[in-house]
User: Fold this.
Amino acid sequence: MVGIPDSLPARMYLLAYDTTKRRMTRRGARLGYVLRGAALTELYLDGRLVEERHGPVPGTPGDDPYGVLAQIAASRPRTWRYWVRKDGRAIVGTVQDELVRDGWIRVRTRKVLGLFPRDEIEVKDPRVVKVLWGGVSSALRGRPVAHVHSYDAAAVALAAAGELRTVLPNTDRRRHRRRIEELTARTGPAAPAVRRVIRQQRAAASG
Assistant:
């Protein structure tokens, strides 16, 4: 039986990997937003974050593997979008280091044009990604929404919000729009915040 990482950010990082082209399909800020959204969603689903006045506040004490809960506890009230945007690039490195440490991926650094360092990511066992894809596919097409595992529902919501096309091509996002909305509603406010942040980023770039 093929295992998968326990944490939702680690799962979303692996879902951004294209096993055919053997490379990441998302990098930089966009991937960071998805991973921050995943960290927020994980805390929300476990009750460590709750919503108050359209933003997250600490709930039940518990683990804080990515330091997000501590940031929120030390801050004045902020929106979900603020916390999705904050430290997006930093969490990419944190999750990547976690996956290397736990043996899921290997990272090689090479220089582009002989000058600029760039990480090349390799998932050691591509079957792990396929198992995660299977969870997304099952959540989209299988059992009633109320019975879908919360992390599979969250993976669908975050993949749709982050436009991870290897997981959810545009055709699937359109075909399963209502189902995606229902799964997103199950997983809390972070995934919609990811979607809004990415749309704002796109609008700013085209404006």
